[in-house]
Queue: 2 jobs
Job 1
Amino acid sequence: MSTLPTWDLDPIYPGCTSKEFQHDLRWVVASSQELEANLEDTKKDLKDMLSQYELILDHLENLDAYSAACLTTDTANEEYLRAVSQTEEASLMVQHMQVAFLNVLATRTEEIARRSAEGGDLAPYRFPLSELLEEQRHLMSEELEDLANDLGRSGTDAFSRLQEALSSSVSTAWDDQTEKTVIQLRNEAFNADRTIRRKAFEKELEIWKAYEVAFASSLNGVKGTTITLDARRGYDSPLDRSLMQSRINRPILDALITTLEKNLPLFRGYLQNKAKMLGLDSCAFYDLFAPVGKEALHFSYEEAHTFIVQQFSAFDPEMGKFADHAFKAHWIDPESRKGKVGGAYDTAFPLAKQSRILSNFDFTYNGVSTLAHELGHAWHDHVVLQKSNLLRSYPMTLAETASIFSEFLVFQGALEKSSSEGRLALIEHFLQDATQVCVDILSRYYFENAVFSERKRGDLSASAFSALMEDAQKKTYGDGLSIYHPYMWAVKGHYYSSDFSFYNYPYAFGQLFALGLWAQSKQAGTDFPASYKKLLGATGSLPAAEVAGLAGIDLTDVSFWQEAMGVIASYAEEFAHGVSD
């Protein structure tokens, strides 16, 4: 097995202490001060102000993405921690400027309406400017916003870093000779040996139990702060703020959640069939990712590279060429190692107009699918990075479209080349992922709703968090599982973000929206890649309903979501037939 590469960040910055990185830190601060000082100048053209504002955001995004990328590969590195802190300090100046900038925009609403109307020189900025004005209506005073941003560094942000550091580094004895981190234990969920899966699950729970007080204190701090600040900013609830950030409304969310709830029996039936395939009476949580089928799906990293490029190229040669470049230019850090965070993500660097991908590649089909997912994000970045900041910043709901669409491309390619036994294993893997995105995501949505409701009355104990988590899993998985995971609230770092609450339903949105687009692609034929790219390009400058409208989709129509769910149902039916044969 060849040695896995590490990513190359040198084209972004030579290092966190490099003159280039430090120069940009100083530039961000100085430019923010300069722009803020000139905001009251009525002779300053609005378009020029917007351009300077966007350039500052680009530089800060570059700094933030770079320092975070460094830290996530080595969470205990003091140099990286210092760089993150320096970036946060610079961001305080930007955040101060942003409050002043939004307040000035609010004094020029008539000009904005005129110039952003059809035919105006700011027409492309119609929605982003309206969004900024809506955000301004929810601002506290400048002094309170400054205080909230400053306290966030030592409050919610610190709690988030604590969760990330602990969950990436704590370990336990596996046997007399070996220790395993919690990330390595979680990777054993894909092991074909149920004895190993159960052992890893039990040891993982022991770790979360040992650190539950720290995790509970962190989550209480994050959710308590979120409740306070969202109320002071005039939001009815954290969910309402999340919906605004997601660029959807309640009717759209209700249509999505209704569809997920209606189809829970579909997923429970799949899990019961999986249990039969595994020779079990019922699945436990540690069986969710157990491989099914006689053909082992293993890939070297080089094979993953070739396979993904082939599938992307079959859909769109330009997309395939992009993925090939990402591999060859070392944009990906695939190795799992101590100190590196678990999971996977894509991050964009606007100044270099490049992306980087972190993963923990495990040489399975799941590892290939994850790479395809993140490369989908990177492709989305590639499409929008040619635009200015306010025209390319897309919400979480639409962020998952390209990633899940890309996963599905790889899935289709794998099906075409598989034997009957291999096909069953691939379909089961697809259903695994769909269950996570539809069922587990719904449980996380229920959990977070419950946490916000309970947290208003005071701090929750670790056991209370676990009880809410298990209750949410029982509501969604139902009799599809016999053993649940009460500590998923400690596992998932998304809960520890105060900037974006309900970091869950956007994944289900993306899954079904992408599958709905896939169904359309089968009818559109060779013209679809171009229209798909156009749709991705619009995700930063339009609300989700208008982006969907480009493809003739009504997001409040339950029938659209159910049609997308029908793609999953077709594979669940095929899997059921395979089990009974």
Job 2
Amino acid sequence: MEKITREELLKAKIPGEETGIQVKTGFCGFCGGDCLLDFYIKDGKIIKTEGNCTLPGANGRVCVKGAAIKQALYNPDRILYPMKRVGKRGEGKFERISWKEALDTIAEKMQSVKEAYGPEQTMVYVGHPKWFRPQMTEFVNKYGTPNYGTESSTCAYALMMANQCNFGQNIMLMPPDFGRCRTLIVWGVNPLYSNSVKGGAGFLHAVDRGAKVIVVDPKCTPTTEYAQLHLRPIPGTDGALALGMARVIITENLHDCEYIEKYTYGYEEYRDYVMDFTPEKVEEITGVPKSDMIRTARMIAAEGPTSIMLSASPVVHNINGVQNGRAIGLLMALTGNFGIPGGFAGPGPARAMLKDSFMGTKKDREHPEKGVNYGEFPAWDKLTSRELQVEHIADFLLGNGKYPIRNLISFGMNHHMWPRPDRIEEGMKQVEFFSCADLYMNDTCKYADILLPVAVTQEREQIELLGPQMVYYQPKVVENQGETKNDMEILLELAKRLGFTLGNPTYRTYEEYLEDRLSPTGLTLDELKEHGMMPAKHIMPARTTEDIMKVHTPTGKIEFVSTILKACKKEWHEGVPAYHDFRETLPMKEYPLILSTGSRKPQLFHSRTYRLPWLVNLEDCPIVELHPEDAENYSVKTGEMVTLETPVGQMDMEAVVNSSCLRGVVNVYHGAEDYDINLLVDDQYIDPISGFPGFKSYCCRIRKKEA
């Protein structure tokens, strides 16, 4: 047999002494998930990634984004050194400085504003990643500003608010019970594209088990191919669809009367409200055939246990989003599927716990009533007091709040994620001081006075749980490029300059933070480093149905009528999950098409992936997708340019005729700097309860662009 040469081994990236290639296992982290990858390393650099298949919870899969991670690490847009602005804001002209000068400058600006005007005139913002947010809350509290916000102002919190109104403040974003449900409703999410490979694998596990799948999604996707029923509501009408299902369940006596009597509040008022949502009316509102809606309602009630899979954003990226989310969730209470095995928020096994996990941390801001927009969203102030709703960040920076914001201190900020980013740019030009800590030189960074280079996931040590009870230590996969630091190291340095410390006990180093994070497990950092992976010594007891049903609402019961919303006494804050039709608020005669943005492609994750050639070159993006009948009406063919116009602007984009779209709905992908669809969405078009923008259901018109 002919011997394989070293050159051939290197070309195939085969690890071993002969090639000098080694394999290290660690977390991807690109989209915020915790997928485990094997990183192939040559001369200190990652040259290839594969899915890990040896550690608990790993399945050997890697998504297309994880496969391209070396292009993210070694991207020419990476910020590798601290820098200060030398040109006009927005020009992107910077010169390298030392970490000392950069951090001293930020601390001096924060301290001088605090002394002259008060700490509240400094605003702190955190986008991606999220892992250090609990410590950021401590940081802003000790500095003294209540004006701390995150990307969750347009991401997860509206759905969390819906769940909290229904089921109590300890219920946030609950994963479906893939392993025990008989019926699985996948509502407004495409897990085979938009979730990590672990989420997609969970869905496929439920399918393989024989669970009946119902998908509620306006588009046809790979996920809908697995559905026994595919309901395609007009975007933004999900609440009416859920209320119609509730009426069917009640009128056919399929609801769980004993459960409702024992565990819920406000059922009679809710029952009376849903009676108006007849199958005929719901079909007219949503476009879903009444026969499909009725069949779905019967399956939810009669073929349980039933679980629901919801994404953090699609249902709530509508101006009636919180109430729509409440209406969907209450189907679980109506049928007795909340808190049971196989249902929504069901019992779970005994688990290890790490200190200050992002979603489980409830460190509130001090004095939120001093916030720049306190009172504008009273339900937000009650339910999400740990953060400021920053949807109107443009107004804050332009001086249109209760008081001016003079300093903006940001970590991982992308102003294109909000509607009307052009208005935010005007605010970033005017703010007195602006610092950005980030991975890449993005459009937001170009407006900053100081830039701080941040380490990626593979450039820092991490501790995570693998499964319910196994604790895993990831050393650095590769050494830091340039002078990058991780976000916690930056926070500790800033805190020291501002005269306070973080952590209890105090963190002097990143390793002391890791030691404290590990403390609930009973393990020490040294022994975990020695073994790499160990079972936790201290375990939280299993959560039972009895535990779950002790809900943390004002009434102590699941609330069909939300006492928190009702007490707000504001428009659209009804106690019942009232449906408001977004079309009644828009100039639909002049702009007759519904604009829906934000659908996922497997290779895209917001704007980050548009800078990676392997991913962005897979296909032309972004594109305007039209149903064939709409395309025919406007004489548009695939590949032709159209002008898309909304009440706030217009843009020329390439059209694609796609039969998976609904008639009358225009779908546009988001995240591309050159074709930012958010420029065309009004930043005043928001949910009055959560402040979330109506990305999924705005209005537009198109015309073919002549050559």
